[in-house]
Write a structure and sequence with these properties.
This protein is mostly helical and 118 residues long. It is built from three helices and three strands. The protein has a three-stranded antiparallel sheet with strand order 1-2-3, with helices on one face. Strand 2 and strand 3 form a beta hairpin. The longest helix is centred in the middle third of the chain and has 20 residues.
């Protein structure tokens, strides 16, 4: 069996880490997992065109899933910092960069690395 290419490794890691965040917030049902698979498929094409972008795949997949969830289900992940009075979603920062984190833009607080929501 051939080892996974660096591109495939980055895509598999992104899938696993975004699924971990979804599971941590109890939203990893079959429909949502399908959204993750769609995002990974779309980003596979993107990173094949720009291999140097492999380190950005995690943040991009997280943003893609977040956007797809907003369209179908609502905001995700909700900010645990600001409380229920003002529900809003966390954002991925940097938008295009390595080592993406979930942040609360309102409080300017890093909540967790993507893949490590509790």
């Amino acid at each position: 069996m051939d080892p996974l290419s660096p591109l495939e490794q980055s895509l598999h890691a992104a899938r696993a880490l975004v699924l971990a965040d979804l599971a941590a917030r109890d939203v990893a049902d079959a429909d949502v997992v399908s959204l993750v698979e769609d995002a990974v498929t779309q980003r596979r094409w993107w990173v094949e065109q720009w291999p140097e972008g492999a380190e950005f795949v995690l943040g991009l997949v997280a943003q893609d899933v977040q956007d797809a969830l907003l369209e179908k289900y609502g905001r995700w992940p909700l900010c645990p910092v600001c409380g229920e009075e003002d529900p809003h979603a966390l954002e991925v920062e940097p938008e295009l960069g390595a080592d993406p984190h979930w942040v609360c833009a309102k409080a300017a607080v890093i909540v967790a690395p993507v893949g490590a929501l509790s």
